[in-house]
What does this fold into?
Amino acid sequence: MTPSRVHILPDDLVNKIAAGEVIERPASVVKELVENAIDAGATRISVEIKGAGKKLIRVSDNGSGMTREEVGLSVERHSTSKISGADDLFHIRSLGFRGEALPSIAGVSVFELRSRAGNNGSALFAEGGKDKRIEDAGVPEGTSVTVKDLFFNTPARKKFLKSDYTENGHIGDIVSRYVMACPSIAFSLTIDDKNLISSPGSGELKDAVIAVYGVEIAKDLLEASASSGPVKVSGLVSRPATSRVDRQYENFFVNGRYVSNFLLNRALEETYRTLIPGNRYPVAILFIGIDPGMVDVNVHPSKREVKFENTQQVMHAVREAASSALKRALGTGAPSAGPGIGAYGETYQREWRPEMADALFPRTGQELPATRIEMEVSAVQPLIPVHQFRDTYIVTIDGADLVLIDQHAAHERIIYDRLSEKRPLDASQPLLVPETLELSPKENAALEENLEYLRSLGFDLEVFGNNSYILRAVPAVSARSNAKQMLSDLVSELMELGRSGKLEEKKERIRKLVACHSAVKAGDKLSSIEINGLIKDLYATANPTTCPHGRPTMVRITEAELEKRFGR
It folds into this structure.
C-alpha cells in the first residue's frame, strides 16, 4: 500500500507557522503583550527591551492576573477569556480575542510567564513551545511576560529583521500608539536601560500626546468632535501651521484599537486640502466610537485593518470633526480670493489703461534706467537675465532663444551637487537661537541611526534628554532655511527609508531634502547679483537642466516657436 502523502503536522511546526502570521518582528510581540495587559484592566504597564527585542522583551502590568490553571491554558492554542461563541466575533470589545498570541510567542522564544490573581502566584516556563512546566511563585498581582532569544529556532525569520535602530523604532511606535489610545494607563518604555516613554496615566489625552510627541506639537492641537448617526468621533487635530511630510502622525482608534484604513486618512486630508500644501499631512489623534457589530476587526491576523459596515458614514464623521475644529480656530474659513487679488496676495488691475504703456514700454528716445548693464553671452555668462517674473521665474536670453529658469529648481540642483561632492563642505552656519526638537521614539531611533552622516553635512545636534535634541547649526548652504522644519522633515524621511535599509539611498534622499529646504523659494525676490550668481553656479553643475527630483530647471522657447505663436 502506498503511504499517505497527507498527514497532520506536529504541534511545534504548527506553532512556528502560526507565529509567522502573528509575530512578524519584536514589535509584534510587544503589541500582543500590551494588548493583553490592557484587556486585563491594567493601570500601569511597563515594557523593557534589550537588543532590539531579540535578546529580551518584558511586559509587566498590574492587571487582574491569572490563576495557576489559567496560566497553563494561556499557552494552548485558541484558548482565550475574551470570546466564547460565534456571535462574539461580531461584537468584539476587547483588543485580543483569537487566543493565538501567547502560544505563537512561546513557540519561537525562550518564554516565561509569571502571574497572580488573588493570593497565589504561578510561573510558566517553555522553550520553543516545548518542555512546558508550571510552578508556584511569589509574584506581585498582575502579569509579567518575559521573552528571550526571539526567533532562536527560526533563523530564517531572524535573518530578515532590520537594524536594531529600525526594530527599536517599530517597538517605540507600537507603545506610542497605545499611550495615546489609553491616556488613563501609565506606560513606561525602556530600551537598553534608557527610558524613552513615561506617560502619567492622568486620563487627559493631551498629557499622553506630550509623552509621545512633545509639548511643541501638543500645544498646537485643537479639540475635535462630531457625530454621524451611530458613529461618534472625538480627539485632537492640528492647526494648518503644524504639518508633516508623511502620514505617520495621523492616528485613528476604533473602539480603542489602533487601525489602518486609507479611507480614514483620505477623509481627514480632504478637510485640509486648501489649508496645507498637497505634499504635507496633518497631525491627528482621533477616536471613532461605533457599535462593534458595525465594524469587522477580524480581517487581518494582527488585527491592524478593519472594515466598516457603512464606510461613508464614518468618513463623514471624521471630516465633520476636523472641519468644525478648524472653523472654530480659524473663523468661518479662509477668505476667498477677490477679483483684484493675485495668487501672491498683491492687487492688480485687470483692465488695460493707456497710461500703463509708459510703464511697460519706454517711449522712443527715453533713457533706460542707469542700473541697466549691457552684457554679452559667453562661456562665463551663458545666459543674460532680463527679468524676474513673479519672483519665481528668471527670464533670460542666450543670444538665440528665450530661456525661463525656475529659481527654486535651479538652486536645488546647485545645493544638491555641493552636498554630493567628495571634498569637505563649507563650515556650518550656527543658529542665532538654537532650536529644540522633540521626537517620538520611532523618530528618535531613525535620527540616531543617521546622526553621523547628518553631522558630516554640517548639522550640529546635541542630545537633550529622552527623545529630544538641540539643533545648534545647519549646513552653510541651508542658512536661509527654516532649520527646525527641515530637520523635522528629514527625520520623517529617514523613518520611511528605514524600511529599505540601503545606506546610499538614505544619503541621496537626505541630500535631496536638504537641497529642497535650503533653496530659494517661489516668491523670493533676488537681486541682480544673486540672479547672475545663480546662473553661473547652475552651469557649473554636472546636470544644469534638471533638479535632483528630475524636474526641469529651465524651459527654452525658440524663435521658431515665437513666430508660430505670432502667426508669422
Observations:
- The first strand starts at residue 44 and ends at 50.
- Residues 11-204 form a domain with the Heat Shock Protein 90 fold (CATH 3.30.565.10).
